[in-house]
Amino acid sequence: MDGLSATLEPTSPDTVVIRLAGELDIATREQVTEAVQAVLPVFRPDALVLDLDAVTLLDSAGIGALVSCWKLANGAGCTLRLRNPRPLAYAQLELTGLLDVFALPRA
């Protein structure tokens, strides 16, 4: 699958989940940051969760986009967590020292 899709899932008044599917790379990094920028002022969630279960590729630009999303959320007084990263994505996040930043449990 080429590209990236983002599906919004309000789960409660204070938490919003964005389900990402596809490739999170240099070509699609702006899509995820734009999705987060759109959600924060509308929903004003306490927590934002990016679900990576259907992300098939995560490169360094994609990791950079996730960090940008974390900064955007943090600046809006919102926590940002990742959930369901595939094993390779998890390993990349672990290697870059970002597990704690994104509240991912250690394996």
Order of helices and strands: EEHEHEH
What fraction of residues sit in β-strands?
A: 25-35%
Q: What name is given to the CATH topology?
A: Transcription Regulator spoIIAA
- State the shape: globular
| Average residue pLDDT | 95
What is the name of the CATH class? Alpha Beta
CATH superfamily: STAS domain
Low-confidence residue ranges: none
| Strand ordering within the main sheet | 1-2-3-4
SS element count, helices: 3
Q: What share of residues is helical?
A: 25-40%
Evaluate the radius of gyration.
13 Å
Give the number of DSSP strands: 4
Describe this protein's structure.
With 107 residues, the protein is α/β, with parallel strands linked by helices. It has a single domain (4-95), classed as Transcription Regulator spoIIAA. The protein is built from 3 helices and 4 strands. α1 runs parallel beside α2 (60-75). The model has no long low-confidence stretch (mean pLDDT 95). Pfam families: STAS. This is Anti-sigma factor antagonist.
Keywords:
STAS_dom_sf, STAS_dom, 107 residues, Anti-sigma factor antagonist, Transcription Regulator spoIIAA, Anti-sigma_ant
